[in-house]
Amino acid sequence: MNLKFQNKKITGILTVLPENEVNFDDEIDNYDFSRAQSMKLKLIMGYGKRRVVKEGTTISDLCIYGLNYLFDNGLLKKEDIDAIILVTQSPDHFVPATSHIIQGKLDLKKDIICLDINQACSGYPVGLNQAFMQLEQEEVNKVVVLNADMMSCKVSAKDRGSRPLTGDAASITIVENDTSGSTIYGTVNADGKGAEALIIPAGGFKMPSTPKTAELVTDKNGNSRALDHLVMKGDDVFNFVQREVPPMVERLLDKAGKTKDDVDYFMFHQPNKFMLKKLADKMGISYDKMPNNIVENFGNSSGVSIPTNITHNLGEKLLKEDFLICLAGFGAGLSWSSLLLNLGSLDFCETIDY
Amino acid sequence: MTEIRPEFDFSESSNFIEEGMLDSFDIVSLVASLDEEFGISIDGTEILPENFSSVDGIIQLLIKNGVAE
To answer: Domain Beta-ketoacyl-[acyl-carrier-protein] synthase III N-terminal: where (chain A) (predicted)?
Structure first.
């Protein structure tokens, strides 16, 4: 589905990374790879450092820390927030919504919209789409989009497919009305037939967690997981991304009357380095315009990887300059989404540690 | 391939995938090596296990991706 928004803009992006860093070199013995294969995959896939939360930390902790940073530094006023949209697959509780917990702990005003959205790696464009729609309301002038996930807690230590790539993070994006006449183009897509390609089988109401669902089972590839853990069918996900993302971006650019050369940066979700390079090659985009360095430095933090990509790679530039940027997210659902927008002259665009 | 999985004799196999000689990580390593060796980028939509089940299949994939016969 194609979307179009008039007179909306992003005015600030903050990424919050847990201070706790894990290095692939220290974990090599956990995985069933030969040493040589590990070192080769490290280069190809981007296994490296990743940030993960310490036990007891929740996504609301990361979000509240980041919001307090903005309040304390005069970058955001509590009373100006008209809506909070939290995109996550790792909420503090099933009930209530974590956005309400954040609103309460920060003592924000009560005439406010609080909304949790269950989306993973395509969650950044999806959350922004919702913010743009809410800004159509007369009384909504400033929306805070929170993306936060801590999936490291749901990945088996013996899962060599997912564990070396998974990181945790949160981001805060401020979205406001704009008077410049700007247009933002977007697309959203879903294919629930691929739901099992990325799934945590147990822990919900369909299959509650029990001692049985916590038992590790080893698959034919040597990965040991429990039903409580995230399962990723790597081949299926890889092929879905290579098949669906290039035409989605083509369609987006076509709707906007732009070409790939018009776009300054393609800031995509980063599942691993190999997948990003293959996408860039297929789409004929240089690696300079499509950064792929987030997984090796911080890990794949699901829907937060796009804002992390932006603050880490373009943070300083986006304070002073303006760029035409294409965002694309893709993953669990299956879900894939994109946005084409002008981004720049931001009030803030930085990364902080929690 | 013997560099990636030295424990197997690939010349004795009729299907590398069905016989469990190459998994998805081995295919990723193999694609990276082939890309580098031949100066190509194998199309991401063609990185499917069935295209890596035999030497003939891999050769066909290389030809399809611009390597001269």
So the answer is: 115-186
Which residue type is seen at B48?
L
Nearest to A23 by CA among A224, A170, A225, A167: A167
Q: Which residues contact A344 (CB under 8 A, 6 or more apart)?
A: A317, A318, A320, A321, A322, A323
Burial class, B14, CB count within 10 angstroms (exposed 0-12 / middle 13-18 / buried 19+): exposed
Q: Which residue of chain B is at minimal alpha-carbon distance from A40?
A: B29
Backbone phi and psi for residue A227, each to the nearest 5 degrees, phi listed first: -65, -20
Residue B69 has pLDDT above 80, yes or no: no
Task: Tell me if chain B has a CB within 8 Å of the CB of A275.
Answer: yes
| Closest by Cα among A28, A4, A24 to A298 | A24
| E-assigned strand segments in chain A | 2-6, 8-17, 21-23, 49-51, 83-87, 113-117, 142-149, 169-177, 183-190, 198-199, 217-218, 224-225, 231-232, 265-268, 322-331, 335-344, 348-353
Helical residues (DSSP H) of A46-194, grouped into ranges = 59-72, 98-105, 123-134
What number of other Cβ atoms are within 10 A of residue A78's Cβ? 13
Give the contacts of A2 (CB within 8 A, at least 6 positions apart).
A185, A186, A187, A251, A252, A255
In order, the DSSP letters of A97-116 are -HHHHHHHHTT--SS-EEEE
Structural domains of chain A ordered from first start: 1-191+233-354 (3.40.47.10)
Distance in Å from the first CA to the final CA of chain A: 37
Enumerate the domain spans of chain B.
Answer: 10-64
B49 contacts in chain A (CB < 8 Å): 235
Model confidence pLDDT, tens digit, residues A2-58:
999 999 999 999 999 999 999 998 988 887 777 788 888 889 999 999 999 999 999
∠A312-A313-A316 over CA atoms, to 5°? 85
Peptide bond into A96 cis (omega under 30): yes
Contact flag A238-B47 (C-beta cutoff 8 Å) = yes
Q: Do A275 and B44 touch (CB under 8 A)?
A: yes
- Among residues A223, A211, A304, A312, the alpha carbon closest in space to that of A265 is found at A312
Question: How far apart are alpha carbons A29 and A27 in whole angstroms?
Answer: 6
Closest chain B residue to the Cα of A243, Cα to Cα = B45
Chain B contacts of A234, Cβ < 8 Å?
24
| CB contacts, 8 Å: A247 with chain B | none
Q: How many residues appear in chain B?
A: 69
Token pair listed for A155? 């990945």
